[in-house]
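Encode chain A's predicted structure.
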Amino acid sequence: MNRHFPGDTAVLLGRTLRHITRSPDTIITTAIMPIAFMLLFVYVLGGAIKHGSGPYVTYLLPGILLITIASGISYTAIRLFMDLQGGIFARFQSMPIARSSVLWAHVLTSLVANLVSLAVVVLIALAMGFRSGAGVLAWLAVTGILVIFTLALTWLAVIPGLSAKTVDGAGAFAYPLIFLPFISSAFVPTATMPGPLRAFADNQPVTSIVNTIRDLLARQPVAASIWTALAWCLGILIVAYALAMAAYRRTIN
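Encoded structure for chain A:
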């Protein structure tokens, strides 16, 4: 690793974070859709959905948190695309800085922005009746899973950010990720789904991640599910990072 990497990344991170603070509407916009989903499902559809005991918002929140992340990472792709089209990347390449610092600055900015959005969504959920008796360790485990999941999806967002032809194309890749939780255990138990749909829902990453977060918040034993969730998160992260760095090398060469 270039010995200037930490310092260069810190400087570029400050630049991208300043852009976020100058347009806080980005974070607000990121949280609006998940909050709208939460309001819709709790107050309009929640009474007709069978989900077990306790307030429906408590059952619903883990899936809403993943939707929040999927919604937020689209802005990473858009910011990368705008920097690339604006010539910022070319300017940085002419300077004596670690090349990967440019990408890491965007990725870490995404992590910070998404954590703020997640905090906003949790506060709204608390106002809607969400309650958890989970202890500090359980909340730290939930936070760790969400951080790894955010990094995984953010590196995935880097790929269209570097290769898209239009700004709309850069952000549009996130739409399937936003709707993937709808075919999972995020809103209803998968046992209520028809056979083929249930098979898909049971074996896609969102279900294992949602179930793990839900069990942690409910103080239920997670057993092997946490390792399945971590395997999905780390697997996506490793593959996405490798593909993103390959796309970056093609872009700058």
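Residues 86 and 159 are 17 Å apart (CA to CA).
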